[in-house]
């Protein structure tokens, strides 16, 4: 994205993400956020969270719905962070809270459409109350994957290197996204 006056207005969200623990944070045109039908299938066939949480399929937008949602945005903030086996749960929770913090900051600045999405299943509760109301409606956010966002393609289009982790005990890089305007 070229430097513009509008992008300079969003710089504070990049700074906030970095100050909150992000490894890298980049503003991108929302059109670079990629969706694909196969992504949601990976949630259904490859993740234990499918159907077990309100922030997971089938309770989240389909890839086609998400594509229409994305069409209503011009700018997004994408950021990465790294977890180790020792800090995995704590770091993922901290980064989920950071998404909400940056999203709220943008909202209070007048970007009323601001919407955050996180990496992987929500971790706010040990077990989601799928049959009831969410215990954390102000903090819970769907995962990018659950909405059909191709996280690898999106990260790469933003210039963020993201590779498949091939060893269970290796550090893992995760991506969060905030749609701003």
Task: Describe what you observe in this structure.
- The protein has five helices and four strands, in the order H-E-H-H-E-H-E-H-E.
- It is α+β, with helices and mostly antiparallel strands and 181 residues long.
- The chain has one domain (5-179).
- It has a four-stranded antiparallel β-sheet with strand order 1-2-4-3, covered by helices on one side.
- Helix 1 (5-19) runs antiparallel to helix 4 (88-108).
- The longest helix is centred in the middle third of the chain and has 21 residues, at 88-108.
- The two termini are 14 Å apart.
Strand percentage, roughly? Answer: 5-15%
Largest sheet: 4 strands, antiparallel
Number of strands: 4
Residue-averaged pLDDT = 93
Question: So what's the overall shape?
Answer: globular
Alpha-beta content class? alpha+beta
Number of structurally distinct domains: 1
**Radius of gyration in whole Å, from Cα?**
15 Å
Head-to-tail CA distance between termini: 14 Å
Q: What distinguishing features does this structure have?
A:
alpha+beta, 4-stranded antiparallel sheet, 181 residues, 14% strand, globular, 5 helices
List the helices and strands and how they pair.
Elements: H1 5-19, E1 24-29, H2 37-44, H3 63-70, E2 75-83, H4 88-108, E3 115-117, H5 151-157, E4 172-179
Antiparallel strand pairs: 1-2, 2-4, 3-4
Helix pairs in contact: 1-4
Can you summarize this structure?
Helix content is 33%, strand content 14%. The chain is of the alpha+beta class.
